[in-house]
Amino acid sequence: MTISSLALGPASPALGRRCQCGSGGGRTWRPLGASSLCMSHGLEWHRRAAARVVAPAASLSAVEEIDQRDAVDRIASLSQVASVLGTQWGDEGKGKLVDVLARNFDGGANAGHTIYNAEGKKFALHLVPSGILNEETLCVIGNGVVVHLPGLFQEIDGLESNGISCKGRILVSDRAHLLFDFHQVVDGLREAELANSFIGTTKRGIGPCYSSKVIRNGVRVCDLKHMDTFAQKLDTLLRDAASRFEGFKYSVDMLNKEVERYKRFAERLEPFIADTVHVMNESILQKKKILVEGGQATMLDIDFGTYPFVTSSNPSAGGICTGLGIAPRCLGDIIGVKAYTTRVGSGPFPTEILGKDGDLLRVTGMEFGTTTGRPRRCGWLDIVALKYCCQLNGFSSLNLTKLDVLSELSEIKLGVSYMQNDGEKVSSLPADLRLLEQIQASFECTFCLLFRSF
Ligand code: IMO
Ligand code: MG
């Protein structure tokens, strides 16, 4: 897959160009392309290149017109259930794509991102799906999500105070697990324990909450309907944390305060709670169009990512079925979103750009974490990792984002292969962290690849 094979799609009447890098098994990729789908002015950069190279006589506006028509056709032809997943370590721009696509869908599920409304107002969402900005969309928070109710209500309040109505438009799965404030405290304590080998989590309690779920003493949204047993369930969790962490101070007073708080949350959440497995499957039967939005990204997947520097869920294609309760045969198009690469937190990053160029990309692309504000590590597009993500997810399209940011750089590189210290080529993404950490990426300049693809 080369950048050009994506970029030239809109200018070429025949959709789909064969990958030239030899890594994709000769598979044909259908570019999403075109302005209404693009995250930024990035594709314009490409369209200009396409206009120059493919159709020198065509005016830019003619090319743009073709782009517009192509984009509308491509969006309209997306399958009944379509999904948007990140192909790197998150922050690829999924939220913007979902916001654009949501206009053509009846409902959307999961995750949250930084998005801007028509007036340019910024919304940093973590739990409420990005489709909320589109008035017609029903948003579903699936069973695979861990829900921090104070955070959810804060997001809802923020949206409502900006005139975005959430009433009747958000459903929260009764099977989703509740993430309590204490999970966040435990997240911090675990990271502190790891000292220099810390994961660099968001300290939002994600790992500890999924731990509770897997150990099987977690508290679910449906448990809010039984406040008589809620205190006892929460007490088990808090005692567990107190016995494990010396720094965790637990008292009965703390439990009582939390129970009182959750009584109020339970009342407020009541109208949002639904059996979303039933809702999703009924919607599929009724031929409603559903857009699924993955959280984080494939390289942060608990099974397939750069373990242990990963999140605690499966933000790859398998997670669509387990996180929503829909069958694999219902999944249609899966769109992979990629840009140059960024990563927050620790862990291997073979195409990382250190020094001035990395700083330039960070500042130009405003690459600072949505959740924690941490500076994101920046690097070149990693084709080896991308091929791995394509294998795992079976993408029907790739959407290339943030190209405008790259226009600040004099040279754009792609990481095209991995090499071990001894010079031996590594043909697939290694599971072994030690190997992954010492891997060297080999780079090629995109313009070389662009011309080689003709
Ligand atoms: P936002 O909401 C990018 C990364 C963390 C860490 C790993 C595990 O900012 O768009 P976790 O808190 O999940 O236990 O952290 O995953 N990570 C993210 N990276 N964007 C995110 O979401 C992320 N949420 C978690 O940096 O490396
Ligand atoms: Mg992010």
From TrEMBL:
Substrate binds at T370, T371, T372, G373, R374, P375, R376. PROSITE patterns: ADENYLOSUCCIN_SYN_1, ADENYLOSUCCIN_SYN_2. The active site is at D91 (proton acceptor), H113 (proton donor), K213. GO terms for biological process: 'de novo' AMP biosynthetic process; IMP metabolic process. The keyword Metal-binding applies. NCBIfam families: PRK01117.1, purA. This is Adenylosuccinate synthetase, chloroplastic.
